[in-house]
Structure formats: C-alpha cells, structure tokens
Design goal:
Chain A is of the alpha/beta class and 422 residues long. In chain A, α5 packs across α13 and α15 crosses α17. Chain A is globular and about 75 Å long. The N terminus of chain A is likely disordered. Chain B is α+β, with helices and mostly antiparallel strands and 155 residues long. Chain B has six helices and three strands, in the order ααβββαααα. Chain B has a three-stranded antiparallel β-sheet, covered by helices on one side. The radius of gyration of chain B is 15 Å and the shape is globular. The termini of chain B are far apart. Classes of the chains: A alpha/beta (422), B alpha+beta (155). The interface between A and B is medium-sized, with 25 and 23 residues.
C-alpha cells in the first residue's frame, strides 16, 4: 500500500474523472520557465517527466531504507531487498505477467533487447535462420541483431510500412515462415506513433514456431499492456518513459524461456556456487541480474506504476487521444507542414516536417518559446530513409499535456514561418 | 525573438536556402564525407588543390539544417584561393569562435569580409546544441585536407 493509493485527494481525482491541471500539479518541473516562457514539454516520448510521488519515494528510500540487496542479514538489507522484490512484483502485475520471476530488471529497454540477443539469440540463431524486424524499429531493436548476425550468420528480414506508417499483416505473413525464429517488433513506433497489431503478429509468428519480442517503450505508457493477452514471449520497456527514473528497464520473458537461457553477464548475485573449477547459476530472474542493480530506481519505478494506476490508464488514454486529435487538427491547418504517420491506430505522437525549414531549425525556434520537441532521426535511420527525410520534428504528449500546449506548439510553428519567411 | 534573429541572420537564411557551390566537381582531388550522428545531417566536401597547395575550387553536397548548409556554403566561398595553411587556420578560428574559445581565435590575418562571416557563424555559440551544425562542414573540410578518415567498426 503506497501513500498515493490511500491519499484521499488522489481518490477524488479518480472518482471525479480526469483533471489535467491537477495532474500537472503533481509534476514539479512543469511549473518552471524556459527562456522566460512557461515550459511546454512535448518530448515525453524521449523521456517523461517525474511526478512528486516518484521523486519522494526515491528520496525517502535513500533516507530511510537504503542498503544493498540480497546480501546482508541486517535490518536495512532486508528492508531494501523486500522493497526491490516488491517492485518486481508490481511490474509483473502492471503488465499482467504470470509471476514476478518473469520480470528481469535491466538498465533500460536497450539492454533488455541486448540481453535477449546475447543470451537467447546467441544460443539459438545460426546460418539458415531468419528473424523479422519492421521498418519502424528503433536502432535498439536493429543493431543488437546486426551485431549478433555478424557472428552467427542468420538473416534479418524487414517488414515494410505502408504510406500511413502502419505494418501490413499480409506483408508480415509473407516474411514469417518456417525459417523464422524470432519476430521483433515495436508495440508503438517512437517516431510516428503507429500502434502495431501485435496480437495478430504474435499469432502469425507462433503459427510458424517463431518467438516474438515486443519493444514496448512507447506503448507501456499509453496503453494498458497485458503480456499474457498479447501472448508475447519477450516484452521490454524502460522506466523513464513511464514517469519513472532513468537507469532501470524491464525484460519480461515467459518463465520457461528465461529458464532455458544462459546468463548474459557474470558476477555477483547471479551465481549459485563459485569455485575456480566451476560456477553454477541461480534461476531467473537473478541469473540475469549480475552485480548491484539500480535499487532505488526500482523503488522509483514501483512508485511510477502506482502513480499511473492511480491516474487510471483509461482516463489517461482518453485524455492523450483528445490532445493528440486537437494538436493534429491545429498542425494540419498550417500551410507547408507535413505530418508523417497517419495510421488509424496511433498513440500520442506527431512527427512533422516543414517545407523550407529543417527540423533542427524548427526545434531551436520552438525552444526559444519554451516549447520542447525532439528533432532528428529518432534513432530510426531506416525509417527516415523510407520516409525520404533526414529528420523530423516530433511533438509527443503525455498525461500532463494540454490543448493549450498544442496551441502553444502551433503558435511557435508560426514563428518558424515568420523567421524563415515561409 | 531578438536572439533568434542573431542566429538566423539574413545571410544565414540566404545561404541556407540558396547554397553556393552546391555541386560535385569531377576534378576534385580532396574529398571527405561528414555526418552528424546526433541529427543525421550529411555532407560531402569537394576540394581541388593545386600543386602549390592552393585551393582552386571548393564545393559541397549534402542535407542539413539552415545553419549547417549556410556554414558549408559560406565556407566554400571563403576557401577559394586560400592555401592549405590558410584553410587550416580558418578551421581553427571558426571552431574556436563557435565553441566560445575566443582567446584561441585569431582574426587579425583575415580580410574584413571573411572575419564578418565567421562572426555571423559564431552566433551559434548561444545555442550549444547547434554548434555541431555550424562546424560540421569545417570538420569535414579539415578531414579532406588531412585525409585522416577513419572507418571505425561496422556490422
């Protein structure tokens, strides 16, 4: 039981529906100014801001309960171990894993994918095998597989997107075959916002005996994720994108798969017995958590999950969709602006380019007006190549975003047009 | 918005929109490719250096923001007729001014027009995230002159 879940103010918010101003008041950073203007933070897809509940949970843990975990018999060691393992159980409930032992804590989603590549992939993949990615993937779900391919000699096949930025299931069906060992896909595109039909992709892959890894970095904050309903074999995400701290990520894996996987890194806390002749390893998840982990960050992640569950993912989803729809209307009305990614199923991201102004110039001019957007390739060079651009500007919305901020974005874009005489 | 007007001065907007020497001269004998991994900007710099080390021709191609294209365009104009030593001195001056190390910049030997243009580029120093945009072309030029390209690792 956390403070947030017994706080009557929080309960009122849930029963009274969604009050975005009240949500904003939970995020201290949102009250600051940038270049003398109120901060309009539209870069949550890169990293979300943190509510006071997360910041205070981490401070409190350092002040009252901190010690290393899984080691000591002293009081604080036990307290810290309990809190760390409770965080694991909370993550399991958050994504509806069958049990807490299916949750491996990593540094971030990137490390989670590398873990699967270097452990499961290294053991499993070889010449003649194929894995299937999509054109939408973040470099984190491309490069670890290329690095392994260089050693193991399997094939990487890539599912194309259509002009709306969505994956077509008939294309997917052509790529997934008896040689396919893994399909690794985003749940939601970080660059375009497209939400992929993951359940159908999983069904297709499983029919061919292939496993599925889902990169849930963007989806985990916008959707209620149910790994069992999806039937995903691996699901990865980072805490910092769901209002938690940086430095900790999650790998969910079906337990039977994790159990059959060799260790990823060696060290303390992951061993059963060490002699110079031979070492045996612990069962998952400990097998994959060598060394002292991000303990306080796990406590912060648990607080972030409490916070999100308290807001109510369905309320948040509706709110974000409203802001997305409104912002899309405002931006669509701007002459010379092109929105990339118009899939019917789309999360709260708008990626855009403007004729005559490069994304970086747009972002600099927006920044001077307090509007923070991401500009660049969004760690998705292949997708940028597909779109025929080198960079886009990306506005991403979160639980604390408002229609007023969408207005501020649109106004700031008009300033770009004035400066560039467009 | 006065700050932004300093960065996006007429001359920057003009060179950004209508870059000079935007071509691939076939007789170039010093070339290099540069890119900014952070933003995806790319540039190819083409130089023709004669036997005495004088830059007869300078051109570029690539994609980037107004700052990086304008910087490249102005650079190619500045380089023509300069010696290798001049080019290196220009590179060091631009780099010093754009990164706020004025004490390392020596504008004394430069003609007024070149010095003015470099000062305009140096407006980028107020925007630390954009310094690499302004210096990409210059780093690439330096690489072309020194032929010190490294391929690194790839998979």
């Amino acid at each position: 039981m956390t403070l947030a879940s017994v706080d009557p103010i929080h309960r009122t918010r849930r029963t009274n529906g969604y009050d975005v101003e009240q949500v904003r008041a939970d995020f201290p950073i949102l009250s600051r100014t940038v270049h003398g203007k109120p901060l309009v933070y539209l870069d949550s897809a890169a990293s979300a801001q943190k509510p006071r509940a997360v910041i205070e949970a981490m401070s409190r843990f350092y002040e009252e309960d901190y010690a290393n975990i899984h080691r000591g018999v002293h009081f604080l060691s036990q307290r810290a171990t309990d809190a760390y393992e409770a965080a694991r159980a909370k993550v399991a409930r958050f994504i509806n894993a069958a049990k807490a032992d299916e949750i491996v804590f990593t540094r971030n989603a990137t490390e989670s994918i590398n873990l699967v590549a270097q452990s499961w992939g290294r053991k499993t993949l070889g010449p003649g095998d194929e894995i299937v990615l999509t054109e939408l993937e973040h470099h984190a779900n491309i490069v670890p597989w290329q690095m392994l391919r260089a050693e193991k000699g399997f094939e990487i096949r890539v599912a194309p997107i259509d002009d709306t930025g969505q994956i077509r299931l008939d294309d997917m069906a052509k790529l997934i075959g008896p040689k396919t060992k893994l399909v690794a896909v985003s749940h939601m595109s970080n660059a375009l916002g497209t939400i992929l039909p993951v359940r159908e992709i999983v069904r297709m892959a499983h029919a061919q005996g292939a496993l599925v890894l889902v990169d849930g970095c963007q989806a985990a904050v916008h959707k209620q994720v149910d790994v069992q309903a999806l039937d995903a074999d691996f699901y990865v995400f980072s805490a910092h994108k769901i209002y938690g701290p940086s430095g900790i990520g999650v790998l969910y894996g079906k337990y039977a798969l994790l159990e059959a996987m060799p260790p990823y890194q060696g060290g303390g806390d992951m061993i059963d017995r060490v002699t110079f002749a031979r070492t045996t390893f612990k069962e998952p998840p400990a097998r994959f958590e060598a060394g002292t982990p991000a303990i306080t960050e796990a406590i912060g992640l648990a607080a972030a999950i409490d916070y999100m569950m308290d807001l109510g993912p369905s309320f948040v989803g509706e709110h974000e969709h409203d802001v997305l729809t409104y912002a899309t209307e405002r931006l669509s009305a701007i002459d010379g602006l092109t929105i990339h990614g118009t899939a019917a199923e789309k999360g709260a991201i708008i990626s855009f380019t403007m004729a005559g102004a490069h994304a970086h110039d747009i972002a600099t001019i927006l920044d001077q007006q307090g509007v923070a957007v991401r500009a660049g390739h969004h760690c998705a060079h292949p997708l940028m190549d597909r779109l025929g651009v080198t960079a886009t500007a990306r506005a991403s919305f979160a639980a604390y975003s408002t229609r007023g901020e969408a207005d501020a974005l649109a106004e700031a874009i008009l300033q770009v047009k004035r400066i560039f005489k467009l | 918005m006065s700050d932004l007007r300093d960065l996006y001065q007429e001359v920057i907007l003009d060179h950004g929109k209508n870059p000079r020497n935007f071509s691939h001269p076939e007789d170039a004998n010093r070339t290099a490719h540069g890119h900014n991994a952070m933003c995806g900007d790319t540039i190819d710099v083409f130089l023709k250096v004669d036997a005495d080390g004088k830059i007869e021709d300078a051109a570029f191609q690539g994609q980037g923001c107004a700052i990086s294209v304008a910087s490249a365009s102005m650079m190619t104009e500045m380089l023509k007729g300069k010696t290798e030593a001049d080019a290196h001195h220009l590179f060091e001056t631009v780099h010093a001014l754009c990164t706020g190390h004025d004490e390392d910049a020596d504008l004394a030997d430069l003609d007024e027009d070149t010095a003015d243009r470099i000062q305009i580029l140096a407006g980028v120093r107020q925007y630390p995230m954009r310094v690499k945009c302004a210096t990409l072309a210059w780093h690439t030029m330096d690489k072309a002159m020194n032929d010190n390209a490294s391929d690194g690792f790839s998979v």
